[in-house]
Amino acid sequence: MTTAAGGRLHALPASGWRRAWPWAKRTLVWGFFGLVAWLLVNQARSIDWHEVGDAIAALPLLTLLGAGLLAACSFALYSTYDLLGRHLTGHPLRAGTVMGVTFISYAFNLNLGSLVGGVAFRYRLYSRLGLRNDTITRVLGFSMLTNWIGYLVVAGAAFFFWPLGLPPAWKVDGEELRLLGAALLVLAAVYLLVCAFAHEKRWHVRGHVLRTPTLRMALLQFLLSCANWSLIGGVIWLLLQGQVAYPQVLAVLLVAAVAGVITHVPAGLGVLEAVFVALLAHQVAEAQLLAALLAYRGLYYLLPLVVATLAYFATEWRARRGRRARGLPPKSPA
Predict the structure, then answer these.
(1) Max Cα separation, the chain?
(2) Can you give the residue range of the structural domain that contains 279?
(3) Global pTM value
(4) E strands of the chain, at which residues?
(5) Are 101 and 129 in contact (CB under 8 A)?
(6) CA distance 193 to 252
(7) Between 20 and 30 A from 154 (CA), which of 37, 160, 227, 313?
(8) Spatial distance between the Cα atoms of 176 and 48, rounded to a whole number of angstroms
(9) What is the mean predicted confidence (pLDDT) over 73-90?
């Protein structure tokens, strides 16, 4: 390409952009991670941890039991996500087996990250149960889609109808949050329209063939995922004992969920707390806020991880016994 003066313009080759983008992405991620780390250190210096311990001890037993019940309902609901993939692929595993695999994967996903929990454990367990890799990929992909499709609706509704009461020093106002909420709701509506008018259409993505679900299946995705995100928000709201309105707690949780994904920190360790402290410390005493979040981690992360670990070893033992009964050699643990 040349200019009117005869000079030559050199466009950056596409390969140059491909090489530059990973570095730009890493810079953004580490910059965000640095901001979160700064928030954590800055807040931790001013926290009386003895007061936090006292606040945890002061949590009513009925509150803890109620939060635990909501957490159990959330895990049970999430465990149905892979049943949608079972319907989509038509694989023969029983519903109870599928829900067990999903529960184990979800618990490890929360504590160790999506690559280890959500992906590796699913491939490990499903392959030992006889599913092919392409089937596992479709089940996994549809489960992840279900989770984030519901996020669009819940976050969109929370930001649009109940904008966060942000700290006074922040320069983001309610109208900007409403615009973000509207954009998320539009994305969710586009997905529904695609499913309504292009169902059963095949899409080729990186060598994988994806099929658009029916509108009925898409609505079921929305229903399950929206209910699950709402339950998770309910766990924290209950532990905060109603000091903050439920829509605000839910909105902060949704912001923290994305922050955890961006930073790639396993279990969102520290990220969840940093976001909640940054957004709600002007409404709730920090000691009570952190006490609620630590109790939430115990009920929603650590306790299910213990159960999932026991269930995983039980599943491995049954799989080995089943292979021996069929006269097959045991699979390596790799």
Answers:
(1) 81
(2) 27-319
(3) 0.78
(4) 202-205, 208-211
(5) yes
(6) 29
(7) 37
(8) 35
(9) 95
What's the rounded Cα separation, in Å, for the pair 282 and 305? 33
pLDDT tens, residue by residue, 230-284: 999 999 999 999 899 999 999 999 988 887 776 655 555 677 888 888 888 888 8
Q: What is the DSSP string of 57-84?
A: HTS-HHHHHHHHHHHHHHHHHHTTHHHH
Distance CA 178, CA 176 (A): 5
Residue 22 lies in a domain: no
User: Is 271 within a domain?
Assistant: yes
Residue 151, in any domain of the structure: yes
DSSP 242: T
Specify whether the CB–CB gap between 140 and 115 falls below 8 A.
no
How does pLDDT run across 310-323, given as a tens digit for each residue? Answer: 998 888 787 777 66
Report yes or no on 179 lying in a domain: yes
CA angle 192, 115, 208 (to 5 degrees): 50
Whole-number Cα distances in Å, 80 to 86, 95, 100, 309: 10, 9, 9, 19
The pair of three-digit structure tokens given for residue 185, joined into one six-digit string:
């709701």
What is d(CA 275, CA 253) in angstroms, rounded to the nearest whole number? 8
Q: What angle, 0 to 180 degrees and rounded to 10, lies between the N-to-C axes of helices 95-112 and 61-78?
A: 120
The phi and psi torsions of 204 (rounded to 5 degrees) equal -105, 115
